[in-house]
Amino acid sequence: MALKNTYRRNVASDGKIEMNLQEFKKWLKRFDLDKDGKISKEELREAIRASGGGWFSRLKGSHGIKAADVNGNGYVDENEFKNLVEFAQRNLGVRII
Fold first, then answer.
1. pTM of the model
2. Which of 4, 56, 68, 90 qualifies as a cystine partner to 83, CB 3.0-4.6 A?
3. CA 40 to CA 56: how far, in whole Å?
4. Res. 15 pLDDT band, cuts 50 70 90
5. What's the rounded Cα separation, in Å, for the pair 89 and 97?
6. Cα(27)–Cα(25) distance, rounded to whole angstroms?
7. Pfam families, per this entry (predicted)?
8. Helix or strand or coil: residue 96?
9. In which element (H, E) is residue 39 found?
């Protein structure tokens, strides 16, 4: 679970971290280092690593961008954010409520 260290208080009985959409966006925004409002592969990788993603944070970051970046520009912007949420729910042990 990549976000366990960040949101321990919201762990469901199935082990998934529960948060609302605003909490998820706020968490990701902390890793938007250049403050451009978009998430790059490197920024997503760092977010996953910093919150307990372990050895596979590089791979998970790459897969997350690939899954969410519809226009292929290398970033997840506001229009593609829904795709990143879906990826997080499938692959990062997160449930957006």
1. 0.81
2. 68
3. 17
4. confident
5. 10
6. 5
7. EF-hand_7
8. strand
9. strand 39-40
* Stronger pLDDT, 6 or 24, i.e. the higher one: 24
Q: Is 20 exposed, middle or buried (0-12, 13-18, 19+ CB in 10 A)?
A: exposed
For 87, the token pair is 């990826």
| H/E run at residue 19 | strand 17-19
Give the alpha-carbon dihedral of 5, 14, 21, 27, to 10 degrees: 10
Q: Which amino acid is at 49?
A: R
Query: Residue 1's pLDDT is what?
Result: 44
6-to-18, 20, 63, 74 alpha-carbon distances in Å: 11, 14, 21, 26
